[in-house]
Amino acid sequence: MNQFPPLQTSKRILMGPGPSDAHPRVLQALATPLIGHLDPEFVGLMDEIKQMVQLTFQTQNPLTFVVSAPGTAGMETCLVNLLEPGDEALICIHGVFGGRMADIAERCGAKVTKVEAPWGESIDPQQVKAALENINPKLIAIVHAETSTGVLQPLEEISQMAKDAGALLVVDAVTSYCGTEVKVDEWGIDAIYTGTQKCLSAPPGLSPVSFSEKAVEAMDRRKTKVQSWFLDLTLVKNYWSGQKRAYHHTAPVSAMYGLREAYRVVLEEGLEARFARHHENHLYLKEQLEALGFEFLVKEAFRLPMLNTVKIPDGIDDATTRSRLLNEFNIEIGGGLGKFAGKVWRIGLMGESCTRTHVNQLIAALKQIM
User: 295 and 259, same structural domain?
Assistant: First the structure.
């Protein structure tokens, strides 16, 4: 006798730091019948996805593909393939995920120098410049969109510093990807990773990545094996390219179906139109929240349009209010991480969750609760 009932979840309005709502076409694609991961049809699908990743990263890098694991695996893929024991790495930290990059780099045996900014602020390029006077790093790593704080980090000046220092530039674009400009080739990014569940509005569990020719050359010069077998690009790249695909692992076929359809939705809308939509709805949310007495954590010039971090007003209990939003209105927003726990909310306007209707639903619910 089956003791477990059929799966039935609540229909949530996802306005947290991820995942975001998925387009009905994406959900329908997930139900497509399975084929083998080495079936010629699936290999063709992989080629299409690779092209879509290149278009959305705005790159022509040949080594561009999707890691069969979530965004943190993309982070590890970049770092474990580029760093060997004894290498120097400069890691910029202005929130949780910069700290995670530093942790992974240290696990690779790298000598890590940290450049830190207070949470809620961006990294000052002059800090990077000063650090480079004393070290010769193999790579500089930085978070473009810090999900824990809502900071959008300018990259172009730091990218030029990396180039002048002969260092690779590694970028975390998990939250910014498909919601604001990410120009891999133009900005001189050597390794980049993201996730599928935020502004791309695909199911979580996959991580698009891209590597420049300079990064590939650095990997080819390695003297030691990559510490992770699964993430070793000398093995993985032969699964995603070449005339004869070498078996590496069984790809998540259904997740790839959903990802392909999510990319079709993005490219049909157009990147510039999508970026404009995120910015416009951010401004609308800002106007509505400030009218209720909310204050943004991040200075306007460095604010993420898709991840809005606001200070919780006096007299409003964090956990109680978020619980009521979820249980009474089916709206999910995010609480603060680390030192901001209980002090801020992280309100997502990502992909399919970035509409004026989403903003209106949240504001109406907050007015009733407050």
Answer: no
